[in-house]
Each structure stands twice: as structure tokens, then as C-alpha cells.
Amino acid sequence: RAVSFLQEGITRWEEEGRITPEKAADVRASLADPVVAVALEHLGAHMMISVVFRFPFGSIVRVLWVLTFMVRAAGAVVTRRPITTGGLDVHNPLVLIWSALPGIGLIAYIFSRPLLKPVLMRLALDQAIHSMPFRLYERIWAKRWLAPSVRSGEVRP
Asked: What DSSP string describes 92-136?
């Protein structure tokens, strides 16, 4: 579900001429990586936790969520079991610290290693703001700051 949400953003960027078909194919290939899908699933879970649990409980639950998966990943490394939850690339100390912050902690998984690619971060933020109500995307000029700039050589005919 999260991958299709970002796929819609890539399609929108292509239609607006903000990304070349080659670059779009590269981004789609990045999204096809299973570790990226795991990181996006946890990002969605953090958002749901933040909706259900308000401050301070949301921050506490998010930290416990990350800590649980960090311990499971570390245990899998020590016991040499296969890691199915993304491992320490997804659940790392930076994500743990960000998840403790009230409000902004809901996007902590953007700081996981698979999503730390600049184009994926921009795409996730751009698509999230684009889907907000009240034409917020246009009002705060998010396209100007988040979407790739239109370059004369990159625009499709």
C-alpha cells in the first residue's frame, strides 16, 4: 500500500515533467527493494500509532515499537537466524531517537537506511503533503521545495 502511494507520486512527477522516464525507472527500482517495503510498512505503522495514541503515549509506543524490532534484529544477528524485519538497517538508533520526539516522531522511519536516499525522502514528503486537504500543497508551495525542479533538458515532449 505504501509503495503504491509513492508510485502515484512518481507518476505525478512524470506527468508534470519533473522527472525523466529513466530517473522514474530508477526510483521505481528502489521502491521494488523488499527492505524499502519493510521500512515503508513501519513508517505507516508509526503514523497509525501517532493517530491512535496522543502525546505522551504516542512517543512511548513508537519508541517501544522501534526498540522491539531492534532487539529482534540484534537477536537474529547473534543467533544467525534470517532477518525478516529489515534488520538494523531499518531499525537503527537514529530512528529510535527520532521516534521519541513528539509530533515529528511519526516520520522517524524516513531516517532508516533504505529510505535515506534523497529522492525517496523528497518523494515521501511531497506525496504526503500533496494528499493533505485544503489545497495545502499549493498554499505552502511544496512543489517548489520538494518536487524536482523542471530542467529544460529533462522535460518530456
From this structure: -HHHHHHHTSTTGGGGGGGGSGGG-SHHHHHHHHHHHHHTSSTTH
> Cβ-count burial of 72 within 10 angstroms (0-12 exposed, 13-18 middle, 19+ buried)?
middle
Give the C-alpha separation, 58 to 79, whole Å. Answer: 32
**Residue 7, phi then psi, degrees to nearest 5:** -60, -40
pLDDT in tens, 9-39: 999 999 988 899 999 999 999 999 999 989 9
pLDDT, tens digit, 9 for 90 and up, residues 96-107: 999 999 988 888
44 within 8 A of 1, measured Cβ to Cβ: yes
φ/ψ of 132, rounded to 5, equals -75, 155
> Alpha-carbon distance 66 to 99, whole Å?
8
Residue with cell 515533467: 17
Express each pLDDT in 48-105 by its tens digit.
998 899 888 999 999 999 999 999 999 998 999 888 788 899 999 999 999 999 988 8
Residue 138's SS3 state is: helix
